[in-house]
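Summary for the steering committee. One of the milestones for this cycle was to obtain a three-dimensional model of the protein with coenzyme A bound, which we needed before selecting residues for the alanine scan. The sequence and ligand used are listed below.
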Amino acid sequence: MNHHQACVQATQNPEQFWGEAASAVDWYQPWERVLDDRQPPFYRWFSGAQLNTCYNAVDRHVDQGRGEQTAILYDSPVTGTKQRISYAELQDQVARCAGLLRDLGVVKGDRVILYMPMVPETAIGMLACARLGAVHSVVFGGFSSRELASRIEDAKPKVILASSCGIEPSRTLAYKPLLDAAIEASPHKPEHCVILQREQLRAELLPERDLDWAQAAAQASPAECVPVAATDPLYILYTSGTTGMPKGVVRDNGGHAVALLWSMKHVYGVEPGEVFWAASDVGWVVGHSYIVYAPLLNGNTTVIYEGKPVGTPDAGAFWRVIEEYGVSVLFTAPTAFRAIKRDDPKAEHLQRYRLDNFRALFLAGERCDPNTLEWAQDKLGVPVVDHWWQTETGWAIAANCLGLEPLPIKPGSPTKPVPGYDVQVLDDEGEPVTPGTVGRIMIRLPLPPGCLPTLWGNDERFVQSYLAAQPGYYLSGDAGYFDDDGYLFVMSRIDDIINVAGHRLSTGAMEGVLANHPAVAECAVIGVADTLKGELPLGLVVLKAGIDTTPATLEAELIALVRDQIGPVAAFKHVIIVERLPKTRSGKILRGTMKSLADGTPYRLPATIDDPAILGEIEQALQASGYAHSTPG
Ligand code: COA
Ligand code: AMP
């Protein structure tokens, strides 16, 4: 079957297409309906069926003779540690961790938050939750205590699994004080915290609340897999929304397992037994889907890499891992390759390694600029596939499916919609636009298996955020166009989301933090093009009258505030003080126009602008800070 045929089948007869794909999963009980469309716009996949995701990802491989195969390779240049965990060992460790959670009273449907770095225990904790039918929610280590608190408040976990520390190349971060402060700040308190004591920085445990992970797991008896409904939640992953509280994207069990298994074979072209490496973080969706669940569901060996593409120790780190473990397919963000290219433009480190097994590089998380794609293709001599997806979908919406018949690559495009996604580009009135015309990228409902069925505890926000803009369609939040050959080009967001080093952040949330500073009368945060990270946030602030401060002091205070309230991952490092902000006559700040000024890209003077002279002032201020001439590298 080629890409086109698969698309036709999946669109015309989704029940047959996904029903057949579902045979790759082991079910305790078959479904009554493949697609349950009785309550539109809420669609459910495989309703009536029962399975256990952990059984499918771990136990069944042991049952089927893969017990000795390596399931997880842990490679940590920041601690100088390497570890291999076989499927049989993984089964034992996951079952014990599940036993420890069970002994703490965790049952099907309870929530467990994980605040963990890139160590095998993170995957073990996630799988242990899945084993019990508990719902995990992993919080990325680069988020602040306040962000953690908001997730604790929303998910209401019974237990939190956390590490004593995370390790960045430049510093060791104590997680425990952040965790304690988050619990203090949240109205909901977990009953227990299970702390992984890392030797680099051990944490103080509270006797009545905290347990030592290793000790408790050693004492626990293994827990068996609990059958859950295909439609039961497997996890919640919070992602930046346009305003306020992050959105709790829900993933179900059944559709997720089916979609990820299908994707391993057909999108990535990976067979069981091969080594698959997603160089991301378990705290992001890429980590959930392609470090933990998909490779393990497919019987692959997955790599948990606690390091960076550069500096740990050099720009040859990725090649070293690929050679050492015989990686077949690598998945990472374009920013990682921009970092490698910056440090080693001629890819001289590559000469030291033999990448015999290496077949393909997949990139996602942000738009891949053609220069980076072509550099990677040229240096590696393998197909480099840009593919487009979101936390909400959990797997690729558009890709060059290497397991189907691969299509010619067009740099700048994630190729074509993946079978199952009926992608349309519509104008503001909901009409399809002609090829070459930019519009809102939408997906006709139902979304395929694996995509979010709703937001945690908030059906209404789910509908308002994604389905209300155009009845019958999912609003992706991205703008782009199809070319004459049906290739999709994803160009920009239509909301306040920016992508910083492949990390999804809300400028609205940063504005909320800046606005709380006593000196700030008004502010705007825009994402400015950056040659390494794709985009970087820039704050423009107007001071209240009579404020006595220096620009440097204020900048330092605002940077510290964002770091404290959102986290270092926001990479918020620049503030410019301006007299006024440009607005429309109705008072809307013209962020898009300021972004164009900062990027030095052409812009159209908005017809509704209140005072065009302000744009000149902003341009001057930006140029004085060296901003207006940045171009993608
Ligand atoms: N825990 C705590 N802090 C973290 C963190 C974590 N898990 N991850 C990042 N941070 C901190 C960093 O230490 C840095 O802090 P600093 O401002 O004190 O230096 C800040 O957050 C920004 O981190 P990052 O964006 O990673 O920048 P960097 O300069 O350290 O590294 C790259 C730049 C390009 C090498 C890095 O972003 C990278 O490897 N990107 C790969 C992309 C990726 O994995 N994307 C995920 C989606 S696929
Ligand atoms: P996240 O939810 O963190 O995965 O971020 C999703 C957003 O990242 C998308 O909505 C896009 O804006 C952007 N994105 C991800 N992959 C790509 C890609 N291949 N091309 C363009 N944008 C992308």
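Key point for the committee: The chain is about 30% helix and 25% strand.
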